[in-house]
Amino acid sequence: MDHNKILGTVLAGGKSQRFGEDKSQANLANKLLIDYMLSEIIDQFNEILIVSNNSIKFNESENITIIEDYKKGLGPLGGVLSAMKWNKINKKNYQWIATFPVDTPFFKKEILKDFIQKINLDESDLFFIKSNDKRHNIFGLWSVTLLEKLEKDLDKGERKVELWANNVGVKIINMKFSNRDPFFNINTKEDLEKARELLKND
């Protein structure tokens, strides 16, 4: 697959209710949480979007653009729609949106490369990663041809990524990891402390 056809997108528009504040700005080993993901994907795409409704800090780069949700309160699906709308409005030629969460500091670019290599574009318009029997609905590759359906379903009240993806016909790419889970995500302050301990043991 040609990476030039993919728009990398970090979904940072969540309310971080369980964390208590915008977790993208949490400090982990003197580095903002959002920068862990950005540093892994920055050289994989021509352009990267950050979808956030807050004024946030991050390691800025000429190929990173930050936008707000097209419509607020629609959850991760709304973030995906926002990226697709930005792609269309700005007359970009990206055919796919690759989505990443903001709260997964141990994810590595090698996993992204493996994920994309395993994809057969003829099989679906939507692909998610599944690792060690756990499905990751935010690590996805979405065809921009899904824009119209996604917008209509959001207008009807759909909010659950998994249900919407199942209805569309998502293709799951299975991966196995024997060591530390690279998809460990930070939802609470306790998770952040655990991540700090894991980094100390590296």
Largest sheet, strands/sense/barrel: 7 strands, mixed
Number of structurally distinct domains: 1
Tell me, rounded to a whole number, the average pLDDT.
93
What is the name of the CATH architecture?
Alpha-Beta Complex
Distance between the termini: 33 Å
User: Which regions have little confidence, pLDDT < 50, spanning 5+ residues?
Assistant: none
Going by CATH, the homologous superfamily would be Spore Coat Polysaccharide Biosynthesis Protein SpsA, Chain A
Order of helices and strands: EHEEHEHEEHHEH
Tell me the layout of helices and strands.
Elements (H helix, E strand, L loop, with lengths): L5 E6 L21 H9 L6 E4 L12 E4 L7 H15 L6 E6 L7 H9 L8 E6 L2 E10 L3 H9 L5 H8 L2 E5 L13 H12 L2
Helix pairs in contact: 2-4
Short description:
This protein is of the alpha/beta class. It has helices at 33-41, 75-89, 109-117, 147-155, 161-168, 189-200; strands at residues 6-11, 48-51, 64-67, 96-101, 126-131, 134-143, 171-175. The protein has a 7-stranded mixed sheet with strand order 3-2-1-4-6-5-7, sandwiched between helices.
